[in-house]
Specification:
The chain is mainly β. It has five helices and 57 strands. The radius of gyration is 26 Å and the shape is globular.
Length: 775
């Protein structure tokens, strides 16, 4: 997945387990036990644990060759141990400020952290003999081994001298340091894997197969049995070693003058605006923290008009199946300028994200809201001007005691020109019983918008201030997040989910964990706003194994070309600058270019000299002395792509750039194929290049098409997807160790007559333009 599409497929595991804190006499308990398992208590007792057996700080757990366990901790964190694992809970308090220390002696630990980590990331630490892992997010798989016990895929020279640790981030982010050299730290994002060996510095590696196998859901699996692709038990996402998550805001500091593709007229695709052919819905569930998803109408589970669950849209590749059970329903339906929004909450309900078999009770209420997805999908990225969305309806916010309060105000101020928004909301819960309730003011600014979706938390742009004047900026015991999207054709409304965790009171009886959902009304936007879809390579080589492809949906004047069709300026993300930037040719040259005279698609590469990227007052020089920056942009278009509903199509190469590496070599594209299955909404693609005396091949089968426009694949195993789409890489005579890569593509034209693909195979990258056979 690209930076952009992953933003649209918002992380959901980070919120799955962030439910209100429940009182418990111990640090946690066993919720699943199978095979040979031993619990050694701090006082020396040896136990054979069962479901419900409590665990405390100081406990040591050992699993045999056929043993597996799952622990549910006091803050709803879940810890799963694979066979042949030794693990110690060094510290796990029931107070947010006291911290957590988990020690993995050997074996495999899988975690989804809870409220203690969410509010006190700096005090939640996992460690092995050679590594420490700081928690900046919600889920990971940690592996530790010694010498001959280590998996062969991570051993160099046949032996792991000094021990090995491997950390794979499922969701959120982690800081991985070498215990012997703590200053050497790598920060990971979803899908990234880091290896620490002995006293060596941490380094990114492709995700090993045994990490993929460790993704088994303990509750549903049998010992030694890995999850089958597509099963609800498999939920890791294994991407390239430096696959980055999320997009920052685009900022264009000066007016860009474009020529709309050498005078090509803007393709009129406004006939495709009659309605979303997918009947796709945006859905937010807030049961502690908001979780956003998407589903087509036929995959909704409804009780009348009330949501009871859904199967995630295959294009999102999330593979979740949220389910709601029990509880009394509170339903409300409103209309926002033709867009129907449905919302409600269930008191005392159960919630699961992998079907009815994963249900667990949620203190308080589970809130939900649903509306037709924003259409077209790219619209928020290409509009200009500002707009204000005001509160139209909401569920009463509730805390963990199910005390209903009030969403006193909510307002979203959008700056479409900058692709950002600001949020202001006021939430209050009355006192009841021992709980004093409270009020909270939520404010966020410069929140990025991508593919009509937005997200913010106290870890980035959201600031929450409670009624006592305590701010989340200075007190980690006050935290929260919000998630939302613009909905309907023309983005006539917005839906929003939010969660607040306030553990600042000295007495836990006064703590509040609040959630709710809301609908906001705004002005109808111009759905026919023209745009140019594109892909841009990253020539920087910021770290070993970096595989970055930038997805850029530009306004027409943001792509500038000369009289020969050579692009000299555009806007696209730039990791080093934290968001979108304006790229300029500078002293570099357009060393290769091409134009499709029929549609205005352009492609090429910059090389030699130095290009520049600027974002606001920040800037960066991009040396192209030994590498190239590849680009491909579709022609101008007003209206989305609407692919044929059935059948298949073959696409032929109509142009390409010569592949380049980071050492100054220029190669040749030997062959490339692209075949679309419109009935299944999938794409097959292959690329074969020759460069620097080697032949590289890449192929991906069954890449899901997202919203009729986007498709992608990455090297490594990607379990748990409806249509698993790993990019398979090979080369002769040798790829070297840990070759990784990516395919990142898009369709353009009224019905997808053209397609663009940016590829990266090991250190080699290039762009390919395809035309559909027969037009």
């Amino acid at each position: 997945m690209t930076n952009r599409t992953r933003t649209a497929r918002r992380s959901w595991l980070a919120a799955v387990l962030a439910l209100p804190l429940a009182a418990a006499a111990a640090s946690g308990e066993f919720t699943f036990v199978t095979g040979q398992v031993t619990l050694a208590k701090a006082d020396g007792r040896q136990l054979a644990p069962l479901r419900g057996t409590p665990v405390d700080a100081g406990d040591r757990i050992t699993t045999g060759p056929n043993g597996m366990v799952q622990l549910t901790m006091v803050d709803q964190a879940r810890l799963s141990l694979r066979p042949s694992t030794q693990f110690v809970i060094e510290q796990y308090s029931d107070r947010a400020g006291d911290g957590v220390v988990l020690s993995l002696i050997k074996g495999t630990l899988r975690t989804f952290t809870g409220l203690l980590a969410a509010g006190n990331r700096d005090k939640f630490v996992m460690k092995t003999r050679v590594a420490t892992v700081g928690i900046r997010g919600s889920g990971n798989i940690l592996y530790a081994c010694e010498a001959e016990e280590c998996d062969a895929s991570v051993v160099q020279g046949g032996r792991a001298e000094g021990g090995i640790a491997v950390n794979h981030t499922i969701e959120g982010s982690h800081a991985v340091s070498n215990a012997a050299a703590g200053a050497q730290t790598l920060i990971t994002g979803p899908g990234q894997t880091v290896l620490v060996m002995g006293a060596q510095a941490p380094r990114y590696i492709p995700t090993p197969r045994f990490i993929t196998d460790a993704a088994t859901n303990m509750v549903n699996a049998k010992p030694g049995q890995a999850s089958a692709p597509g099963s609800a038990a498999a939920d890791t996402r294994d991407f390239a070693p430096s696959d980055a998550s999320g997009l920052g805001t685009r900022i264009v500091t000066t007016a860009l003058v474009g020529n709309n593709g050498l005078g090509f007229t803007t393709l009129d695709a406004t006939a495709n605006l009659a309605g979303d052919p997918l009947d796709l819905r945006d859905i937010i569930i807030a049961g502690g923290s908001p979780v956003a998803g998407q589903a087509v109408g036929r995959d909704l589970v409804l009780n009348g008009d009330a949501l009871r669950g859904y199967r995630a849209y295959a294009g999102t590749q999330s593979n979740i199946e949220p389910a709601l059970a029990g509880g009394s329903s509170d339903l409300r339906i409103i209309n926002l300028d033709g867009t129907t929004v449905t919302m409600g909450r269930y008191e005392g309900a159960s919630l699961g994200f992998f079907g009815t078999g994963s249900l667990s009770n949620v203190p308080g209420s589970v809130h939900w809201i649903m509306a037709p997805s924003g259409y077209p999908v790219y619209l928020s990225d290409v509009l200009t001007g500002t707009a204000t969305y005001t509160l139209a309806a909401a569920t009463p916010p509730t805390n963990q005691n199910n005390v209903a309060g009030t969403l006193g105000s909510a307002r979203i101020d959008v700056n479409f020109s900058d692709r950002t928004l600001g949020l202001a909301a006021t939430v209050s819960i009355p006192s009841q019983g021992a709980n004093n309730g409270g009020t909270w003011q939520m404010n966020a600014a410069n929140v990025p918008i991508s593919l009509n979706a937005f997200f913010g938390s106290t870890a980035d742009r959201l600031i929450i201030v409670n009624g006592s004047g305590i701010s989340s900026r200075t007190n980690g015991n006050l935290s929260g997040s919000f998630e939302g999207s613009f909905v309907g054709t023309g983005l006539t409304g917005a839906i929003l989910g939010y969660g607040i965790s306030d553990a600042t009171a000295p007495n836990a009886a006064f703590w509040n964990f609040v959630s709710g959902v809301a609908a906001l009304a705004g002005p109808r936007q111009l759905a026919a706003a023209p745009y140019r879809e594109g892909r841009v390579s990253d020539p920087s080589g910021q770290a070993p194994g970096v595989i970055l492809t930038y997805a850029a949906t530009n306004r027409l004047d943001e792509v500038t070309a000369d009289a020969q069709g050579r692009v000299t300026r555009f806007t696209a993300p730039r990791t080093a600058l934290g968001g979108y930037a304006a790229y300029e040719l500078g002293s570099a040259q357009v060393v290769q270019s091409g134009v499709d005279a029929e549609t205005g698609m352009v492609w090429g590469r910059w090389g030699g000299g130095t290009a520049t990227a600027t974002r606001g007052s920040a800037g960066e020089s991009i040396s192209l002395a030994n590498t190239s920056l590849h680009y491909i942009f579709a022609g101008p278009q007003s209206g989305p792509v609407a692919l044929p509903l059935t059948g298949t199509a073959t696409y032929d190469v109509i142009g390409s750039t010569s592949p380049t590496d980071s050492a100054g070599h220029v190669g040749a594209l030997n062959s490339a194929t692209l075949n679309a299955n419109f009935s299944n909404r999938t794409v097959d693609a292959s690329v074969n290049v020759g460069i620097n005396g080697q032949t590289w091949t890449g192929s991906a089968h069954g890449m899901p098409i997202y919203r009729d426009q986007y498709f992608s694949a990455y090297s490594g195993n990607i379990p748990g997807l409806p249509n698993p789409t790993p990019l398979i890489i090979g080369c002769e005579p040798s790829c070297g160790q840990g070759a990784a890569g990516s395919f990142d593509g898009f369709f353009s034209g009224r019905s997808g007559q053209r397609a663009g693909l940016m590829f990266r195979l090991g250190p080699n990258q290039g762009a390919i333009a395809f035309g559909r056979r027969g037009g």
